[in-house]
Specification:
- The complex is a heterotrimer.
- Chain A is α+β, with helices and mostly antiparallel strands.
- Chain A contains eleven helices and 15 strands.
- In chain A, the strands form four sheets. In chain A, strands 3, 4, 5, 6, 9, 12 and 13 form a seven-stranded mixed sheet that branches.
- In chain A, a hairpin with a 6-residue loop joins strand 7 and strand 8.
- The longest helix of chain A is centred in the C-terminal third of the chain and has 39 residues.
- Chain C is α+β, with helices and mostly antiparallel strands.
- Chain C starts with a helix and ends in an 11-residue tail after the last helix.
- Classes of the chains: A alpha+beta, B alpha/beta, C alpha+beta.
Chain lengths: 467, 224, 391
C-alpha cells in the first residue's frame, strides 16, 4: 500500500516538475553513452586482448627424455605434478597433434556429390591450394570463430575450417624471386571435401641402455609413411594478422580429428613394418611432447626457463607474438580503455550533478512535506521513487535508440566485406551494457540522495516554505 | 498634463475565457484611481493591460496620446521604463540586493544616469522619500513587510515616471502598514503622479479620487 | 557602461544561487577537462597512425618483378600514372655468421625509399658509410639442437664489426652503426639493413649471372591505388606486389575510425549535456527575468544579464579545467599512456595545445551564447502576469 501511495505522489511531483527534463535527458544520454560508446570501444579492446592472449602464444613444449649430456627429463605421471605446481601454469597436456608435419599435399577436391572438382576454378587449383595452405593445426582458440559455415565444435569428425583468404606465392628457388602472388578466397570451398596427403614426423625412440637411464630416447626425428585422408570443409575463419599468427595458411581441425589422424599415421606405419621403431612411441604415453599452457604471454618464457632449471627438456614456444603487433595492440587497447573510462566517468558525473541540482532546488517542497508530517526517511523514499520512474523511462527510450543504432551497424558490418565481421556487436554484450547503464542511473541518484539526507533532515518546514 | 486612455479593451484567454469586455478607462496625472472587485472580476487583467505587461486582444491604449499597444516589444519596454512604475502585491525585491540597490534596479538601463554614483545618490533620496533612511543598507530579509513594500514604491519612482500602477499593494500587510502605504501613494498623487490601484480593500476608499467597480470583466460606472 | 551596471545584478544572482553556481562551474570544468584530454590523445594517435603507418614510405612503394629480357618494361613502368620514380631493387643476401654470433642465418636487406627507422642505440646509416648495417634491437635466434628460441640483444654489437659469409663463400665484415626498433611494422626482425647502394654493390659481387629477372622498386605518389597499378604492371609483363606489414593495417585503421567516431559522439554528448544543464539553470529564473521586463528591460539587456553571468562562471570553470588538465596529464595520464606503449614508433601523450584549448573555449562560449539567446526569447514569452500572482 505504501508503495502505491508514494508512487502516486512521485508521479504527481514529476508532472509538475520543470526540472525533471534535465535529469531525464541526462539519463537518456547516459544510457546511450554506456551502451553505444562503451560497447564499441570494448569491441576494439577485445580484439586487441584476444590477440595478446592467444592460446598458442602461451604454450611451450616439453620434449620427451633424451640421453643427451644435459640429461633432460620428460613428463611422467610422477613429474607432471611438478609441472602443474609451477605458478602461472594453467595446464600440461599431451600434444594433440602433428607439431611438425613434414609435408601436406592437397591432392583432390570433391563436391557434395562426390564429383571431382579439382582444378576447375582458380579457387580449386590444387597447386595453389597446396602452396597456400601448408599447415594443419589444432587451435582451440578457433574452434567456433567461423564467419561462414559451421564451427568445428558443431561439425562431425574429419572436418576442417580454412582461412577466408590465403596467399598463393610462387617463389623461384634459384633466384629467390617471386613469380606470382595472389590472394585467393576460400568461400567457395565450403561444403567441399579435400583429400590430403600427409607425411608425419615423430621423435625417433631408441632405448639408450648404455647410458644407464631407465628410459632414454635419442632426440632424433623420423618420417612416417605417407597417409591419405579426407577432410570436409565446413566453414571459413577470418584470417588477419590482428587475430592470428602469420601466414593464414592453416587448415584447422578439432582435437578429436587431430588425434584420429595421429593414430591413423601410427597404425599405417606399424602396418608398413615400422613396429619396432614405434613400439615405445606407441606404447609409452610419455614418449610424446607435452604442451604447457601459461596464464598469460608474459609468463610463458619464465615458465620455460623454470622448467629447464628443473631438468625438463622444455623448449620451443609454440607461437610468438610479433613485437609490432604487441606494440600496436597495446596502444589501441590502451586508448580504447582510456576512452571507456572517460565516457563512464563523465556519465557518472553528469547524472550526479544533475540530480544534485534537482534536489537542491526543492527546499520549499521538502518543507511542505515536512509540515504535513513526512519523516526524512519517507521524503527520501518518495524522491528516490521519482528517480526510479525517470530511470525506467530513460532506459526504455535510450535502450531503443541505441538498439536501433546497433542493429543498423550490425547489418552494415555483416554484409559486404567480410573483413568487417569483427566489429559486429553481439546482443548479449549489448544487454549486459544496458544492464550496467541501468545500474548507473539507479545507483548514482541513490548515492546522491544519501549524501544529501543530512541536508534534507536539516530543513525546517516553515523556513523552507517562506524562502 | 498626461494621461493614460484605454479604449474598448477586450482580453480573451485561450479563445474561451473573456477576462475583459470592452473596458474603457482614463487615468490622469495627479489622480488617485481605485478599481475594486472580487477575485476573478478582471481587475488584475485590466492592470496588466494598462501597465503594458500584456497586450489586449482588441482595443487600444494611449499614453500621452500615443497608441502604445501597437508598438513593437522593445519600444513598449521603453515606455514602461520611462512612464510607468509598478508596485506588486508580492513585493518582488531581489533578496541579494540591499534596499537602495533594489531601488537602483530600473535606473541601470536609463541612459539619463551617467554613472553609478548618480544612481546611488538618487536611490538614497528616494529611500528618504519613503521614510526608510536608516534602512537603506539593509537586505529585504531584514525588513518588515511594510518596509519592503515601501522600498518597492521607491523603486517604482526610480525613473520618475508619470504614472504608478499598484496591484493589491497592501495584500500582504497589516493595517498599520496599509495606512502608511496608502498615505504614501496619496502624497505621490498630490505631487502630480497618476496613481491607479487595484484592490479589494475597502479602507482605500477614503484616499481615492475616483473609484470603479469591476464585475465579470465589465467596468462599472464611476462611483463618487 | 551598461555592462558595468549589470555587474551588481550578476553578483547578486551568483550569491543567491551559490550551490547551483558551484555545481555549474564544477560540471563545466569536468566536461572541458574530459574533452581536452580525450581529444588530444585520440588526435595524436590519429596523426601518428596517418603519418607513420599509412603514409609509411614502404606503403608508397610497389615491387615489380620483370623478366630480364623485357627491355622496354622499365620505361613503361616509370611512365605509369602515379609513379614518381623507378629504381632497381637489389635482392636480399643470406648470410651466415662467421664468428659464431648467431646460429641461424641472417638476411642482409636494404632500407627501401631511404627510410630512416627509429634507432634505439647508435646512429642511423649515413650515405657516406660503407659496410655498415643496422641490426634489430632483439634478434630471434634458435638453438640448433633444441630449436629453442634465443633472443639476442644486439645493442651490445653497436660500434663493433661482425663477420659473415654468404652462400657463395664471400666474406663480409660489417660494422654495426646502430640498432633499430623492432616494433616498426615494415621491417623484418630477421634482417640486418644496409643502404640500397651498398647492397647493390654486394649483389654485383656475389651475383649469379643466371639471373632471369630484375626487381624494380616503384615510388608512388599515393599509397591508395596500388591494386590498380598492380593490374597495370601485368600488362607490361611485370608481376607486382606491395610491401607486407607485420600488422593488419585494415584492422587497426578500422579500430582507429571507431575510436574517432566514438570520440565525436562523446563530444557531441558532452556539449548536449552541458547545454541541457545550462538551460535548466536558466529556466529557474523566470520570475526574476519577468521583473526586469516589467521594469522596462529590453531583450538585449536581458540577454546581456544572463550571458554575462554564465560567461564569467564558464571562464572560471575553464581556467580551473586548463590547470587541472595540465596537472592530470603530467602526473597521471602520461605515465599510464607511456607504460602502454612498447617501442618508439608511435607515441601516446595527452597534451593540451593552445589551438585545441581555444577551439574548445570557442565551442563552449558559442553554445552558451546560443542557449542564452534561446532562453532570452523564451523569457520574452513569459506572461508578465506571473508577477501579479499572489505569493
Amino acid at each position: 500500500m505504501r508503495i502505491n501511495n508514494n508512487l502516486f505522489l512521485a508521479k504527481a511531483n514529476l508532472k509538475g516538475s520543470k526540472r525533471k527534463d534535465t535529469v531525464m535527458v541526462m539519463m537518456i544520454l547516459s544510457v546511450v553513452a554506456v551502451t553505444l560508446l562503451v560497447g564499441f570501444l570494448s569491441i576494439v579492446n577485445t580484439t586487441c586482448d584476444e590477440y595478446k592472449n592467444m592460446k598458442i602464444c602461451r604454450q611451450g613444449y616439453i620434449m620427451p627424455e633424451t640421453c643427451y649430456p644435459n640429461g633432460a627429463k620428460g613428463v611422467t605421471d610422477k613429474t607432471i605434478g611438478n609441472v602443474l605446481s609451477l605458478e602461472h601454469v594453467v595446464s600440461c597436456e599431451r600434444a594433440a597433434l602433428p607439431t611438425v608435419p613434414e609435408v601436406i599435399t592437397i591432392t583432390k577436391i570433391t563436391d557434395e556429390n562426390n564429383k571431382d572438382v579439382s582444378n576447375t576454378t582458380n579457387e580449386t587449383n590444387l597447386d595453389k591450394l597446396t602452396v597456400g595452405l601448408v599447415d594443419q593445426f589444432y587451435d582451440s582458440d578457433y574452434i567456433n570463430k567461423v564467419i561462414k559455415g559451421t564451427g568445428l565444435d558443431k561439425a562431425p569428425e574429419m572436418s576442417c575450417i580454412l582461412p577466408h583468404i590465403f596467399t598463393y606465392e610462387d617463389i623461384d628457388e634459384d633466384s629467390g624471386k617471386t613469380v606470382a602472388r595472389e590472394k585467393i578466397s576460400t568461400e567457395s570451398l565450403i561444403g567441399k571435401t579435400i583429400t590430403v596427403d600427409l607425411e608425419y614426423l615423430i621423435h625417433q625412440f631408441t632405448k639408450g641402455e648404455k647410458r644407464g637411464y631407465e628410459k632414454g630416447y635419442l632426440g632424433e626425428w623420423t618420417s612416417l609413411p605417407k597417409i591419405t585422408y579426407k577432410l570436409k570443409v565446413v566453414g571459413i575463419y577470418y584470417y588477419s594478422k590482428a587475430t592470428s599468427l602469420d601466414g593464414g595458411s592453416y587448415i584447422l581441425v578439432s582435437k578429436a580429428t587431430a588425434e584420429k589422424i595421429d593414430k591413423m599415421a601410427l597404425d599405417n606405419a606399424v602396418k608398413k613394418g615400422m613396429k619396432d621403431d614405434l613400439d615405445d612411441y606407441i606404447n609409452d604415453e610419455y614418449a610424446r611432447d607435452y604442451v604447457v599452457t601459461a596464464d598469460s604471454i608474459d609468463n610463458i618464457a619464465g615458465i620455460i626457463s623454470e622448467l629447464q632449471g628443473m631438468g625438463f627438456n622444455a623448449g620451443v614456444q609454440v607461437g610468438y607474438v610479433d613485437e609490432s603487433m604487441l606494440a600496436f595492440t597495446g596502444i589501441f587497447g590502451g586508448v580504447g580503455t582510456f576512452l571507456t573510462v572517460a565516457v563512464l566517468f563523465l556519465t557518472v558525473i553528469n547524472i550526479f550533478l544533475s540530480v544534485h541540482n534537482n534536489i537542491a532546488e526543492r527546499k520549499a517542497e521538502i518543507g511542505l512535506m515536512k509540515a504535513v508530517g513526512y519523516k526524512t526517511s519517507q521524503i527520501f523514499y518518495s524522491m528516490y521513487l521519482e528517480n526510479i520512474i525517470l530511470a525506467v523511462k530513460a532506459l526504455l527510450i535510450g535502450g531503443v535508440l541505441s538498439a536501433v543504432t546497433v542493429l543498423i551497424i550490425n547489418l552494415i558490418n555483416s554484409s559486404g566485406d567480410t573483413a568487417q565481421q569483427m566489429y559486429v556487436m553481439p546482443w548479449t554484450s549489448f544487454l549486459i551494457l544496458l544492464a550496467i547503464a541501468f545500474g548507473v542511473i539507479l545507483v548514482i541518484p541513490l548515492v546522491c540522495l544519501l549524501i544529501m539526507v543530512y541536508n534534507i533532515a536539516k530543513i525546517q518546514p516553515q523556513e523552507a516554505m517562506n524562502a | 498634463m498626461n494621461s493614460i486612455v484605454a479604449k474598448d479593451l477586450v482580453k480573451v484567454y485561450n479563445q474561451k475565457v473573456t477576462a475583459l469586455k470592452e473596458v474603457s478607462i482614463t487615468i490622469n496625472q495627479g489622480e488617485f484611481i481605485v478599481v475594486m472587485g472580487h477575485s476573478g472580476s478582471g481587475k488584475s487583467t485590466l492592470l496588466q493591460m494598462i501597465g503594458l505587461l500584456d497586450l489586449p486582444t482588441s482595443g487600444s491604449i494611449f499614453i500621452n496620446s500615443k497608441d502604445v499597444s501597437k508598438l513593437p516589444k522593445n519600444a513598449i519596454a521603453d515606455v514602461r521604463q520611462k512612464s510607468l512604475g509598478f508596485v506588486f502585491q508580492a513585493f518582488h525585491l531581489n533578496p541579494q540586493l540591499k534596499a537602495y540597490e533594489n531601488v537602483m534596479l530600473p535606473m541601470l538601463i536609463n541612459p539619463e544616469y551617467k554613472n553609478k554614483a548618480e544612481m546611488e545618490k538618487k536611490a538614497k533620496e528616494l529611500i528618504d522619500v519613503v521614510g526608510l533612511s536608516e534602512r537603506a543598507e539593509h537586505y529585504p530579509s531584514q525588513l518588515s513587510g511594510g518596509e519592503q513594500q515601501r522600498v518597492a514604491v521607491a523603486r517604482a519612482l526610480a525613473n520618475d515616471p508619470d504614472f504608478i500602477l499598484a496591484d493589491e499593494p497592501t495584500g500582504n500587510l497589516d493595517s498599520e502598514n496599509e495606512v502608511i502605504i496608502f498615505t504614501l501613494l496619496k502624497e505621490l498623487a498630490q505631487q502630480g503622479k497618476g496613481i491607479m490601484v487595484v484592490s479589494h480593500n475597502e479602507s482605500i476608499l477614503e484616499y481615492a479620487d475616483r473609484v470603479y467597480y469591476m464585475k465579470d470583466g465589465v467596468l462599472g460606472d464611476e462611483k463618487r | 557602461m551598461t555592462i558595468v551596471n549589470f555587474l551588481m545584478l550578476i553578483k547578486a544572482s551568483v550569491t543567491q544561487q551559490k550551490a547551483r553556481s558551484i555545481v555549474f562551474v564544477i560540471f563545466n570544468a569536468i566536461c572541458v577537462i574530459c574533452i581536452l584530454l580525450t581529444s588530444s590523445v585520440v588526435i595524436r594517435l590519429w596523426t601518428d597512425m596517418d603519418q607513420k603507418v599509412n603514409n609509411h614510405p614502404y606503403n608508397k612503394e610497389l615491387m615489380v618483378d620483370v623478366d630480364i629480357n623485357n627491355k622496354g618494361a622499365k620505361d613503361k613502368l616509370a611512365a605509369m600514372d602515379g609513379v614518381e620514380g623507378i629504381s632497381i631493387s637489389p635482392y636480399d643476401i643470406v648470410l651466415t655468421s662467421a664468428d659464431k654470433t648467431f646460429n641461424s642465418t641472417v638476411n642482409l636487406s636494404y632500407l627501401h625509399m631511404d627510410y630512416e627507422p627509429v634507432v634505439t642505440k647508435g646512429s642511423q646509416l649515413k650515405s657516406t658509410d660503407k659496410d655498415t648495417v643496422l641490426m634489430p634491437e632483439i634478434y630471434h635466434d634458435k638453438d640448433l639442437q633444441t630449436q629453442m628460441r634465443i633472443d639476442v640483444d644486439c645493442k651490445k654489437f653497436v660500434g663493433k664489426e661482425l663477420n659473415f659469409v654468404d652462400e657463395n663463400g664471400n666474406q663480409y665484415k660489417l660494422k654495426v652503426a646502430g640498432t633499430y626498433d623492432v616494433t616498426d611494422p615494415a621491417l623484418d626482425t630477421q634482417c640486418i639493413y644496409t643502404s640500397c647502394d651498398q647492397l647493390l654493390k654486394y649483389s654485383e659481387k656475389s651475383a649469379d649471372d643466371e639471373n632471369e629477372s630484375i626487381t624494380y622498386s616503384l615510388a608512388l605518389a599515393k599509397g591508395t591505388n596500388k591494386q590498380q597499378l598492380i593490374d597495370e604492371c601485368e600488362k607490361y609483363g611485370g608481376v607486382a606486389y606491395e610491401n607486407s606489414f607485420r600488422i593488419d593495417l585494415s584492422t587497426f585503421n578500422l579500430s582507429l575510425i571507431i575510436m574517432v567516431i566514438v570520440l565525436a559522439v562523446f563530444l557531441v554528448m558532452t556539449v548536449m549535456g552541458t547545454s541541457i544543464f545550462i538551460s535548466g539553470c536558466i529556466k529557474n529564473r523566470t520570475n526574476e527575468l519577468a521583473l526586469y521586463r516589467a521594469l522596462g528591460y529590453k531583450t538585449g539587456h536581458i540577454f546581456v544579464i544572463i550571458f554575462l553571468e554564465y560567461l564569467l562562471l564558464l571562464l572560471i570553470a575553464y581556467i580551473i579545467a586548463l590547470a587541472l588538465s595540465a596537472v592530470c596529464a603530467q602526473l597521471i595520464l602520461n605515465p599510464i599512456l607511456a607504460s602502454m606503449v612498447k617501442g618508439g614508433l608511435i607515441t601516446l601523450t595527452a597534451e593540451v595545445s593552445p589551438v585545441s584549448a581555444l577551439i574548445v573555449l570557442g565551442v563552449f562560449v558559442a553554445v552558451l551564447a546560443a542557449i542564452c539567446l534561446r532562453m532570452t526569447n523564451f523569457t520574452q514569452k513569459i506572461q508578465l502576469a506571473v508577477l501579479l500572482k499572489e505569493k
